[in-house]
Design brief:
- It is built from 13 helices and 2 strands.
- The protein is mainly alpha-helical.
- Strands 1-2 form a two-stranded antiparallel sheet.
- Helix 1 crosses helix 8, helix 2 packs parallel to helix 8 and helix 3 packs antiparallel against helix 4.
- About 25% of the residues are buried.
């Protein structure tokens, strides 16, 4: 299996397009860093010594707003206010100042997470072509005449896609951290990130928070790459796999959100569950959704994609 994966890895890096993807990702991070650095010059954040009284007044204002809000249309706003009130109270109880220090490397790494969608786009392109291209070039027969099970051949290709996606995320995270350290530096005092979940607040180091943040925001990358791989294996058409996957990447969540405004069954759609950050820093798309529910739905969709890819690839007549 290891040799099969190595072979697929070499195929990917024998294509000039792979290096173009890597250069584009690094270039985008560099441009983002340069723009933020330019905008940051001359901007200083004043220190607020009266932050305790400020948070107390803010919570009083929040309570008044909650009393004035009524109706289902305020659900998301009310949840956001309740979340902020709990965090404010935690700061008061544990004497954690909200005073924002100067923009640091950790802030840049979090901002750079917006480029995860670009890393996902490149991974989708690889996933969509890794099987279909073998049929288009006629090289699939050379793979299958070997004394190796078909499922092993397909698994090696899928593992290569996952490794490529992980590599893109690793490059994005590490390069943004290094560039952020050079341009902005690390904060002198390590302030914890206050994580809110199920009405409770816990402290996390920024490094741990960012690793979790990147991981949760990569769920869409994993699911869409797997779907593109499935379409590539089932229909042997890379253009179809790329087109459908990219369209769903940019439109799936928005379309699902529109359906969720009127129909509760929208919670069973894949894109209602890919954003797990909604349980930590937002509001579930449909009332009644939980982290456990979304995890189960993601596992079911993932199993379906993998089953279709392997079952049809194994049964397909290559000579047809």
């Amino acid at each position: 299996m290891l040799k099969l994966v190595q072979n697929e890895w070499m195929k990917i890096f024998n294509r000039p397009g792979t290096y173009v993807m890597l250069v584009l990702l690094v270039l985008m991070v560099s441009v983002m860093g340069a723009v933020i650095k330019y905008q940051e010059n001359g901007v200083k954040i004043p220190n607020n010594d009266n932050w305790r009284s400020g948070l107390e007044e803010q919570n009083k204002s929040f309570k008044q707003q909650l009393e004035e809000m009524d109706g289902a249309g305020y659900k998301e706003a009310k949840e956001h206010i309740k979340r902020q009130m709990v965090i404010n109270q935690y700061r008061l109880d544990h004497n954690i100042s909200p005073n924002q220090e100067e923009y640091s490397a950790w802030d840049f790494v979090k901002d750079a997470s917006n480029l995860i969608s670009i890393a996902g786009l490149f991974t989708i392109i690889v996933a969509a072509g890794i099987v279909a291209s073998e049929f288009n070039w006629g090289t699939i027969k050379l793979l299958l005449i070997r004394p190796i099970s078909r499922w092993k051949v397909l698994l090696s290709k899928y593992l290569t896609v996952l490794l490529f996606g992980l590599m893109m995320l690793f490059i994005l995270f590490v390069f943004s951290t290094l560039l952020g350290a050079v341009l902005f530096g690390f904060p002198e005092a390590a302030s914890p990130y206050l994580n809110y979940f199920n009405g409770k607040v816990t402290e996390q180091t920024m490094l741990v928070h960012l690793i979790i943040f990147y991981g949760l925001n990569s769920i869409t990358l994993l699911m869409l790459s797997t779907m593109a791989f499935m379409i590539s294996a089932v229909f042997r058409n890379s253009s179809l796999a790329i087109g459908i996957s990219i369209f769903l990447m940019f439109m799936g969540a928005q379309g699902t959100r529109l359906l969720a405004m009127k129909f509760d069954w929208a919670k069973y759609i894949l894109f209602a569950n890919t954003d797990l950050m909604q349980y930590f820093e937002g509001v579930p798309m449909v009332k009644g959704m939980t982290l456990t529910f979304s995890t189960i739905m993601l596992i079911l969709y993932y199993a379906l994609f993998i089953f279709l890819a392997f079952y049809i690839f194994k049964k397909r007549d290559v000579a047809a």
